[in-house]
Amino acid sequence: MVLFVCLLENSINAQTPTLQNPIDYKVAQLLGVQEYKTNQKFIQRLFSNQRYFLDSAGQPDLYKISQTLKQNGLLKLTFKQPMELEVTFSVKENPTTFTNVLYDILNEMGYYYFLLKESVLNEQQFKFILSMNTEYAIDPTLLQEKLYDYGYKVLNIERSHIYQWNYIITNTTFQYPKATKLTTNETNHKANLKGEYWYQIDKGSRLEVKSSNGILWYPKLIFFDKNLNILEIISNQKSSQAFQKEIPKGAMFVKITDTFLPITTKNGLDVTLK
């Protein structure tokens, strides 16, 4: 860390006060050297309580740092006009799972169209670059919040330019916030306008599913393991009001909908884990 700080100091005008701690370094990574230099006195006041911005391991807390910068108007993310945004992500654990999660999150944040510009998979990590045409950079504070919901932690964020960012991410314990955790022998009722339902089913051996309003539908069930790899797909071609299915070994999650028209089940399903 000392070496990194020294390198950053060399890039700042000699008259600028020396960066003396890792908090300053992380702030400069998030803002860019020039923006840090312009607002350095204000930044030093904001982060004067160094302990508050350290996590339980004594390392800079990226979420608290980025949140403070955002709340005080220092984290500028808007472009003057639409342009290409490049974001590099590096992750060690389960690259397929992470990309699925990330794409879901980006869609929720309003980024619907992006390209995989480059990817490298080796024994150490999966690294890939996403490119998108947009008017604003991804909010690092909001992205951290959403990744946390899935069990991911951002280890480092570096901003090369307002349109070039780099994230290093790790997974602690994967969780899927879309999935309702079912309790055995208790019926769960959910309604969803899209007619798509996710459940966590690791504690049972069989599912009983029926439409809440008694309509006929064509049950479709997709079973996933703990890393969201597909284990089994059931697509019924015959309509029914209720359906039962043994849970395949290793299944952690299930997605339930209608085979032909998901909104058929928008009024709800009653699901019981046995």
UniProtKB/TrEMBL annotation:
It comes from the Bacteria. This is Periplasmic protein. It comes from Helicobacter ganmani. The lineage of its organism: Bacteria, Pseudomonadati, Campylobacterota, Epsilonproteobacteria, Campylobacterales.
